[in-house]
Q: What sequence folds into this?
């Protein structure tokens, strides 16, 4: 099956996720970031693999995997997406190390 990944963030960790996803046959990644320009720039490095969406909750409707590549959660309990809004069956990976 083709993986559908929603990626939160557009920095270095997010780029590493995109690099991995491009190696998965048929996989696609949707980048959701605070700064649209950074998200577009990152997606542009992965044509045919990456796209951009403005709303994480809407993007999750079609997702298999949610990856948090933002710094949220390192210095507190903040979360980039309300866990109650993550659809059943969507796997979650958090790259924060706290």
A:
């Amino acid at each position: 099956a083709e993986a559908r990944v929603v990626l939160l963030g557009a920095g270095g960790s997010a780029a590493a996720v995109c690099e991995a996803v491009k190696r998965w046959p048929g996989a696609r990644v949707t980048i959701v970031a605070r700064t649209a320009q950074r998200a577009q720039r990152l997606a542009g490095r992965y044509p045919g693999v990456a796209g951009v969406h403005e709303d994480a909750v809407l993007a999750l409707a079609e997702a298999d995997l949610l990856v948090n590549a933002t710094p949220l959660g390192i210095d507190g309990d903040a979360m980039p997406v309300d866990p109650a809004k993550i659809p059943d069956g969507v796997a979650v990976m958090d790259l924060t190390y706290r």
Notes: The mean pLDDT is 92. The two ends are 32 Å apart (CA to CA).
